[in-house]
Batch of 2 targets.
Target 1
Amino acid sequence: NVPALKYRRILLKLSGEALMGKADYGIDPEVIGRLAREILEASRAGVQVGVVIGGGNIFRGAGLQAAGMDRVTGDHMGMLATVMNALAMQDALEQLGAFARVMSALKINEVCEDFIRRRAIRHLEKGRIVIFAAGTGNPFFTTDSAAALRAIEVGADLLLKATKVDGVYDADPKKNTDAKRFERLGYAEVIARNLQVMDTAAIALCRDYNIPLRIYDMTEPGNLMRILQGEPIGTLVHS
Ligand code: UDP
């Protein structure tokens, strides 16, 4: 008796760091394989899945700038890093027999498709997993903002942010044993209290276009399907 799914189309944000596993750089094949299996499980259950992957496991513009590089060049490198991660996820999904397409906000046509909104929606409708690469295509943005943007553009009914903690807390749970986890939060509260959920541009987009956002622990196997079946895992940010 399989519970009905609560969502029709979701946008999942994975940070680049999510792919590293225990290493401090790059991609752990075991970790990306496990994430791919969970994504495919959701897709096969009938949910249309878009994925935005970060690049922080390889390069971040701010980090390169701190090391002396021009910021815009650093951001270009960060966006290219997300393309590499997206290709790795596409490969991991295809190895499992899934249909997946990388669509990039920067044109790299020998490597992947361009992001064209109507085509992205068509892929989703056909049950293909769409991996949105290169963030928004603009420097000074993050892949969190890209995730909010793509979620709105393709009409996702839920934005999921996969992290290593089981939701949003009022203090750092690693440093403070009294830290309390929020089950629900309003967008305004996230911004006013400066809770580190997603960057402010991403939260503001979610708020303005009223897309619910759930922050959950992706290191716990099965969480993605549980959420899609309506279990209140992690923290929900809503209006
Ligand atoms: N980036 C950018 N514009 C975007 C998205 C990303 O310039 O729209 C660059 C930026 O330098 C960022 C890097 O790509 O640091 C990697 O993305 P992000 O830091 O969001 O990755 P994550 O933290 O999710 O791994």
Target 2
Amino acid sequence: APALTPIQQEILALKRERNAVILAHNYQIEAIQQVADYVGDSLGLAYQAQASKADAILFCGVHFMAETAKIVNPTRTVLLPDLDAGCSLSDSCPADRLAAYKAANPNVYVVAYINCSAAVKALCDVICTSGNAVKIVNQIPADREILFVPDQNLGQWVAQKTGRKMRLWPGSCYAHVQFTVKALEKVRAKFPHAPVVAHPECVQAVRDLADEVCSTELMVKFAKEQTAKEIIVITESGMLHRLQREVPDKTFIAGPTDTCACNDCRFMKMNTIEKVRDALKNMTPQIELPADIRSAALIPLQRMLDWSK
Ligand code: 13P
Ligand code: SF4
């Protein structure tokens, strides 16, 4: 393991002092991943948050992920290093617009990708992540008409995998839609033997060129199974830190966009090592949720955790 910097050592000391646990998403910067107790995808992080017995959960990810931790484990203090770390996908489905849609279409069965606010979760029947979306949708009664929010790309992929017809909310991840066929073909020409793994938030034309489409956690499994030495990874570039640590004998090539050699999510990258230290030092900023929203959001989230086992 690499030697820790003074600030990283300070974080580990504060973590013990506060009886805190650090949960980090795969897209966080390497220095944060190195001090985390657990690094994973949205699904793994939700299970970890629910099971945590620590006094405080310092969540290194974006706002909806920290909110999810608070919903499933409300008696813990949940800290997010920067409250402005949002998500363009989550923002594409405001709760008032979903409520209006439901009022006009009262019979739809609403499946929400976990990348949405607690207020949106509170309006839904079941939640899914990219890691379990197919499994969740397959358990929805066949006679129900499904509305999938907020990601039209993940929704389209799940519809194709399950054969279920679904209405799709017109949202998308600003970062993942920047991957294009043109950029992917260029990198493939450079590494012709490298298999391609892509996140389902990518557009269909990009997904269709990939050897595997899956959640960030399943990318680790995919990488371990490959015989090829080089793998092209079409997702946010923080993922490469996790892959390189767990599969050190392979080389990972970040998926490029038309304008950049790799692709960062500006929200995920709002968390810095200094903000992580300050959050533990000051025990702020904390995630607070109105009790009615929390208890309404827990129903579809708990359904997901149960159906996903
Ligand atoms: P995963 O659950 O696959 O890690 O995805 C989270 C996310 O925000 C993708 O952009
Ligand atoms: Fe949201 Fe996209 Fe960033 Fe994931 S990568 S947190 S979906 S904006």
